[in-house]
Amino acid sequence: MTDILLRTASLRFGYPQRNGLFRKSSLREVIKGVDIVVPRGSVLGLVGESGSGKTTLGRLLVRLLKPTAGGIQFDGVEIGGLDDAAMRPLRARIQMIFQDPQSSLNPRLRLGTTLTRPLGAYGRLKGRRDQRERAAALLHLVGLPAEFAYRYPNELSGGQRQRAGIARALALEPDFIVADEIVSGLDVSTQAHILLLLRELRARLGLTMVFISHDLSLVRVLCDDVAILNQGEVVEYGPVARVFSAPQHAYTRQLLAAIPLPDVEPGWLDDSPPLATSQQQGSAA
Ligand SMILES: Nc1ncnc2c1ncn2[C@@H]1O[C@H](COP(=O)(O)OP(=O)(O)O)[C@@H](O)[C@H]1O
Ligand SMILES: [Mg+2]
Description:
This protein is an alpha/beta fold. Helices cover 37% and strands 25% of the residues. It has one domain (4-93, 172-284): Rossmann fold (3-Layer(aba) Sandwich). It contains ten helices and eleven strands. β10 (225-230) and β11 form a beta hairpin. The chain starts with a strand and ends with a helix. Adenosine-5'-diphosphate binds at residues 15, 30, 48, 50-56.
């Protein structure tokens, strides 16, 4: 056991691209030597403009992509070079939640089926009754009523769908989660409830998270540390309080100036209703 759950070392990644002239593919590098350290139980915010490489880095961390160079250590194990078979036992512990829950929620399946599918795939279901109970427990965990197991994704609001996406990611009881822009596109009040839920889950389940967002105000209320990504490089990295009060890099200052932080105080979430209320709203919204 180490107090660092995840770390990267000079992590690099390039997408293959075709060179029209010679028809030979080369790599277009979009992650250019990233070093991050995520202590167990902490939340790291990953911020940058569109195209800066946030999603690519997130996919690398959960090993949906394979690094072209450098390393990724998860719980003391170097996973950067592992093949699918070697990754499989670790997959259950590492989950990614996407902005668009559509990609993780099959529109043709009832929620209960989708939520318990990963459990089935890992042989962790003991029959129908167990499946029902597990679905209900997962829904409860994210503040949705048990009856939602019988609903289809299109019968949910945006916020409810995102809760369901979170529940699915939690099914296998992972210890590390990468959340990629999961509240973008939701209204501010729904965003607050989802952030509150994440914070609650983090405390209750001891989750370690990388929270990807282009919105610094969200990072401020949820994250311990923040890494600012610019064109595939981390240009600023440190505790949230330090980065917000004394940004070192011109790019960070530019981001801070560009993103209005009007009435969003660090204590913003603390003024939000407790989870019980958010559960009701979650089911009513
Ligand atoms: N599948 C892909 N194939 C080729 N290039 C990609 C692919 N996905 C992303 N890119 C490129 O990689 C860069 C980083 O993209 P991305 O990681 O999606 O950034 P962000 O999430 O910060 O918007 C962009 O220039 C984007 O065009
Ligand atoms: Mg992205």
